[in-house]
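Structure (tokenized):
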């Protein structure tokens, strides 16, 4: 791994258009990974910290740590002074954070767009409290006591023991199975302990009982994975990327777009300890 000092690695986002960028949070910190043509490219540690979660879009990186929430817009990371965070999220208008004790808050993104120094603009708006916050996807928050939409107030969307959520679908991964929402109702899609889910509207993948599944023709099919480590986190960077419990990554190659014309998995050991979150900057 290169660039393990944040001062030596100031550029957060890739500048080569053919590359997609992933950020992985772990006990080691925040790692930036370049993915191009289903190949794992350069990767480097851009911030040393105990990172609990990460969210990103094309211009902003948000990191939850055991001490604070960090934000980056292309030239390093600054503290937003939220305090310890268990989960963070991003949408077009807001940054979101949830503390380990369940306090949920949001931060107006226009403050960043105006170029104000985050430390001088502590504008977190406390919304409500939940039990056991797990993961955001935009304004949706998965938590032990259910699924919520975060706005000026907290809207309960039902379910319990929610581990992960995808706005596209939408899908919810819970301790009792994987669900999709249809006409305002949650419909069970697959039994088992679902711990991760990702969808872009066309494709959907989930981790259920420590195995990887793909949604196909309205059903879920198990996919073979390389190695024996358990899949933990999912994201799309061009294609599907899987972060494993041992800190490695595997990227699914499409035969039609990969440089060698072959499909299958492209894998790389990253040397990460306890990966806790992954986000694509290209969503």
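Design, position by position:
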């Amino acid at each position: 791994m290169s660039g393990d000092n944040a001062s030596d690695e100031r550029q957060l986002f890739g500048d080569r258009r053919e590359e997609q960028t992933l950020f992985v949070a772990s006990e080691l910190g925040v790692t930036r990974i370049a993915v191009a043509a289903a190949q794992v490219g350069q990767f480097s540690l851009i911030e040393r910290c105990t990172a609990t979660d990460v969210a990103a879009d094309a211009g902003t990186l948000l990191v939850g740590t055991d001490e604070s929430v960090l934000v980056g817009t292309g030239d390093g990371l600054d503290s937003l002074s939220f305090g310890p965070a268990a989960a963070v999220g991003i949408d077009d208008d807001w940054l979101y954070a949830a503390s380990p004790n369940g306090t949920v808050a949001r931060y107006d993104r226009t403050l960043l767009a105006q170029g104000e120094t985050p430390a001088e603009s502590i504008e977190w708006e406390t919304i409500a409290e939940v039990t056991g916050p797990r993961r955001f996807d935009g304004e949706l928050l998965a938590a032990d006591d259910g699924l919520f939409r975060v706005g000026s107030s907290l809207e309960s969307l039902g379910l319990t023991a929610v581990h992960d959520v995808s706005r596209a679908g939408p899908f919810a991964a819970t301790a009792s199975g994987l669900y999709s929402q249809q006409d305002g109702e949650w419909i069970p899609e697959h039994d088992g302990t679902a711990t991760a889910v990702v969808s872009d509207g066309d494709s959907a993948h989930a981790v259920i009982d420590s195995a990887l599944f793909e949604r196909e023709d309205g059903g879920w099919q198990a996919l073979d994975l390389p190695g024996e480590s358990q899949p933990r986190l999912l994201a799309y960077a061009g294609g599907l990327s899987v972060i494993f419990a041992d800190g490695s990554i595997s990227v699914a190659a499409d035969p039609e777009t990969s440089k060698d014309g072959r499909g299958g998995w492209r894998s790389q050991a990253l040397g990460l300890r306890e990966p806790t979150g992954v986000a694509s900057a290209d969503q």
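Reviewer-requested clarification: The longest strand covers residues 39-48. The two ends are 25 Å apart (CA to CA).
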